Write the structure tokens for this entry.
Amino acid sequence: MTLKERIAVLAQLGQGLSRPDPERTALIKASYRYNQWFTEENYSAAIQAITDRMLQQSLLEEWVRSYDISDDMTPQVVGLVLAGNIPLVGFHDVLSTFICGHIAQIKLSDKDKLLLPYLVDQMAEMDERIRPYYKFVDRLADFDRVIATGSNNTARYFDLYFGKYPNIIRKNRNAVAVLRGDESKEALHDLGKDIFTYFGLGCRNVSKIYVPENYDFEPLLEQLHEYRKIIELNKYKNNFDYNFTLLILNSKKYFSNGCILLTESDLIQSRIASLHFEYYKDVADLQQKLEPHRDEIQCVVSDQPVKNWKHIPLGGAQTPGLDDYADGVDTLAFLTEAN
């Protein structure tokens, strides 16, 4: 298939995802029965973001324009070890491999193993030439390069297994938000999307906020309370209750609105149902606090640009574009480089 043909079938997939499909609905329900973090609402959010930001023909054409993707390029086998922390989290890697004309050898996460094969089947129904581009496996073998996503712990094993191949190996990351203290109610409400979507389990979820000294938390807590239905999921509530108990037992200061716990910490990653915060004095102090954590921060969201960081507006963390590469590593550049 030519690049033009691959883009066309991806755009067609996007159109199909915009329409209801009983089979897709059934698979989402089955996924939720298996993993109750994967609610129908979360799947809908993931599919909507993919459709709007990754499967539009004009966006795909603009994206590939900066890369040397030749129809004469020899296809490689790319091993993909996909994460399963949020629905369809590995879709961008799968899309990137296909757009380059490579063959994707995919190791699915046990936590999210139903919908991606469905998407491949949907494309194959549009064009049977799709099938040789995808192979789902229990174990990677005979590949040319690899993209593996996991935790800091699994990354050590990935380095051991895949270190001799061209690779991208990803570890734990989280998003952070920078607040000035004069954000509107609407902006603070949008921040709630960055915090609560996918129950905070994604690498682009805001796990920490930086706030100016003497920051008034009340307006933020009020806006985040608008997401209080999240506490209705038992798994989330159990985490909230457990973390709340720890704070009480340890006599640690906290803020809460009944659906999230805010505690002061210099750590980036926070527990489920929790949000860290850290005070900063001025712009220079903020930069000094952010920079040491560059390898832990997936993205920075703010109402205004933050120096030395790509600007993502509040509420935009969970709708990445095609060029919002995980860990800041250009996946398409990696897939188009020579061996």
Remarks:
- Residues 174-312 form a domain with the Aldehyde Dehydrogenase; Chain A, domain 2 fold (CATH 3.40.309.10).
- The chain has two domains: 3-171, 174-312.
- The longest strand covers residues 206-212.
- The mean pLDDT is 96.
